[in-house]
């Protein structure tokens, strides 16, 4: 007796440890140890609980058939069915069977198990399990389209259950049903109650976000966009604070859609641009596709058809990739179905073979009689075959004699053909020798002509290189001469105007003790000197920057590049008047950055298209530059002089530079410069 009690206690402790592992994140360990322990357990209780644990494990990982198998095994392993523990286990098993059949789409089978579980729970006063089955039965009714029956059961759960999880699930399901019935006000009433429950539990943040999102959807369906935006922004804050990244981009997409429908185009543009970059990082193809579609619509509204074409193109590329992926999944599904059918055919064939074997055994005596008859027939056939063989031997002798005669005739024919071949080959070689000699002479002439052409090509290349160097020297000399003239002009201006004023001011200061009234004159001369220095610094800007606007200079440069190359440059500005009104020094820096990026693309990228976008929004300059060239690995490539200069120019204005490039995928450069920094 003492030994039996020790075994029961040890097995109970083992069961407790297995369930502890399963409920605390070590479900794999629980699964492995349960399989080992199942073959060693001696008590019925331990076997039943282990089978139930394995059923829960397979249910968690959607191995539905395995979960059903272990659930039924647990039910069959019971020895007693009247004690409270066994009854509770049975109710839990019924719940598992209902859940698994629902996952398989067998809703009527699921309904049967939920009803049996509810009846057994009510009979044995298991209140919590009773309402768990009632709630599950309601969800099955929803799947079957029986919303009236589901509403009745869910309201019963809300009224009588003490389990907050069941009440929360009931409120959410009630909100969903009333929303499908277009009763949005009633739906929001239940969703608000679900929201209050989630707000009381800090572990329900994700459920809270989903509930608020459903409330916002109801407001949109009811034609209340302002309330919908308020709900979406509330959900966005919760998802951002808790790093629910997937929910965050879904909410941003909904906010952008509402802003677009309200014609708040600039706000919608910022939302969808930000959402697109987040969706690309998370790999959310649906959100990427919808963001490109909405950006295309916004560009069309602004008559920016270049960007509209670009966004539309990206939208259809992602859409095609999704459709191709779905086709591959469908093909894989059909392959699995085909293999399943083949296996079923093999099983049926084996069944037929087994049936035939059983029939053969029953008809054994008849087979023996048939065998004796067949032996007699075979003996007669053997006699006939012997006679046939004898006749065949005579025929073969005659055929061998004929074949020998034919072989003798063929040998004579072959000798004659060999003689003719030798004569033809001799004549061919006699003609071949002069032809080969002529070909050798012709090849030597071609080789000499090729060398001559190569020399001429080298000479021409040297002449072109020399002309280029002369031209470069002339340009350098002209540049140096221009710089020298500019320096002389600046020095002369400094000497004549600023120097003269400073000398006069110095003289006035020397007489200030005796003539204090000259202080006003000194101030006037200082103001004049400051104005001259300011004008001189303005004159240091390039003439084209001083006389022309940035937008015009960029467009003029693009026309020059497109005329001199095969590259296509797409450019867009927003808003041009504000960009042209920027400080001239900043315009000069932006134009220099644009020239350096274009030069790098022409030199190294081998691109066909360049896309440029320069926007001024919310006191910030956004400069986007993309090409479809060779690209480079940013992590393994140090920045050259040009990109280093660009980075320095951007940092001088407290801006940020981001370079995104990969081999054979082109290069994308984003620059942001705040104007109020």
Notes on the protein architecture:
- Its main location: cytoplasm.
- InterPro entries: HATPase_C_sf, HATPase_dom, His_kinase_dom, Sensor_HK_TwoCompSys, Sig_transdc_His_kin-like_C, Sig_transdc_His_kin_sub3_dim/P, TPR-like_helical_dom_sf, TPR_rpt.
- The chain crosses the membrane at residues 422-443.
- The chain is mostly helical.
- The protein is 79% helix and 6% strand.
- The chain is built from 23 helices and 5 strands.
- It has helices at 2-23, 27-38, 44-60, 64-76, 84-103, 107-123, 127-143, 147-160, 164-180, 184-200, 205-221, 225-241, 245-261, 265-282, 285-301, 305-362, 364-510, 519-539, 543-547, 550-564, 576-580, 584-605, 641-652, and strands at 568-574, 609-617, 620-627, 656-661, 667-674.
- It has a 5-stranded mixed sheet.
- Strand 2 (609-617) and strand 3 (620-627) form a beta hairpin.
- It is flat and about 150 Å long.
């Amino acid at each position: 007796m003492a030994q039996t009690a020790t075994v029961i206690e040890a097995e109970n402790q083992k069961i407790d440890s297995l369930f502890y592992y399963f409920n605390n994140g070590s479900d794999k360990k629980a699964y492995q140890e349960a399989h080992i322990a199942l073959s060693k357990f001696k008590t019925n209780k331990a076997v039943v609980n282990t089978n139930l644990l394995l059923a829960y494990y397979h249910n968690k990982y959607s191995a539905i058939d395995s979960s059903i198998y272990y659930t039924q095994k647990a039910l069959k392993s019971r020895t007693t069915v009247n004690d409270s523990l066994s009854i509770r286990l049975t109710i839990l098993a019924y719940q598992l069977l209902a859940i698994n059949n629902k996952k398989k789409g067998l809703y009527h089978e699921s309904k049967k198990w939920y009803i049996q579980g509810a009846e057994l729970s009510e009979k044995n006063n298991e209140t919590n399990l009773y309402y768990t089955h009632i709630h599950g039965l309601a969800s099955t009714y929803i799947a079957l389209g029986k919303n009236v029956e589901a509403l009745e059961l869910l309201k019963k759960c809300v009224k009588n259950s003490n389990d907050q999880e069941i009440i929360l699930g009931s409120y959410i399901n009630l909100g969903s049903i009333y929303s499908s019935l277009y009763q949005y006000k009633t739906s929001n009433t239940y969703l608000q109650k679900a929201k209050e429950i989630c707000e009381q539990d800090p572990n329900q943040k994700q459920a809270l976000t989903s509930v608020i999102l459903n409330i916002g959807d109801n407001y949109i369906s009811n034609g209340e966009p302002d309330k919908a935006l308020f709900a979406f922004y509330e959900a966005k804050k919760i998802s951002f604070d808790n790093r629910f990244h997937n929910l965050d981009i879904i909410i941003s997409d909904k906010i952008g859609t509402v802003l677009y429908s309200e014609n708040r185009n600039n706000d919608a543009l910022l939302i969808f641009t930000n959402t697109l970059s987040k969706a690309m990082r998370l790999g959310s193809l649906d959100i990427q596709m919808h963001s490109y579609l909405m950006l295309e619509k916004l560009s069309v509204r602004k008559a920016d058809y270049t960007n509209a074409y670009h966004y539309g193109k990206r939208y259809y590329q992602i859409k095609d990739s999704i459709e191709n992926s779905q086709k591959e999944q469908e093909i894989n599904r059909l392959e699995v179905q085909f293999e399943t059918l083949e296996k079923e055919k093999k099983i049926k064939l084996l069944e037929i073979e087994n049936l035939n074997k059983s029939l053969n055994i029953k008809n054994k005596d008849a087979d023996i009689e048939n065998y004796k008859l067949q032996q007699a027939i075979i003996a007669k056939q053997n006699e006939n075959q012997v006679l046939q063989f004898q006749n065949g031997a005579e025929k073969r002798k005659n055929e061998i004699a004929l074949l020998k005669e034919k072989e003798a005739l063929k040998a004579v024919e072959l000798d004659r053909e060999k003689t003719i071949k030798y004569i033809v080959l001799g004549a061919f070689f006699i003609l071949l020798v002069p032809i080969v000699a002529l070909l050798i002479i012709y090849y030597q002439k071609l080789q000499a002509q090729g060398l001559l052409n190569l020399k001429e090509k080298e000479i021409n290349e040297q002449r072109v290189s020399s002309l280029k160097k002369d031209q470069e020297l002339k340009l350098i000399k002209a540049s140096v001469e221009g710089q020298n003239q500019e320096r002389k002009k600046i020095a002369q201006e400094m000497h004549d105007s600023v120097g003269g004023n400073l000398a006069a001011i110095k003289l006035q200061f020397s007489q200030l003790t005796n003539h204090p009234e000259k202080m006003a004159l000194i101030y006037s001369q200082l103001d004049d000197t400051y104005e001259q220095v300011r004008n001189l610094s303005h004159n240091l800007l390039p003439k084209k920057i001083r006389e022309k606007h940035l937008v015009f200079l960029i467009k003029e440069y693009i026309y020059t590049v497109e005329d001199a190359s095969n590259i296509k440059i797409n450019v867009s500005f927003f808003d041009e008047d504000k960009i042209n009104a920027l400080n001239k020094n900043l315009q000069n820096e932006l134009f220099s950055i644009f020239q350096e990026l274009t030069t790098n693309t022409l030199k190294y990228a081998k691109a066909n298209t360049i896309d440029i976008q320069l926007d001024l929004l919310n006191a910030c300059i956004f400069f986007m530059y993309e090409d479809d060239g060779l690209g480079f690995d940013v992590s393994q490539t140090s920045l050259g002089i040009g990109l280093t200069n660009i980075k320095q120019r951007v940092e001088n204005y407290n801006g940020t530079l981001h370079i995104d490039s990969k081999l054979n995928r082109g290069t994308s450069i984003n620059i942001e410069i705040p104007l109020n920094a």
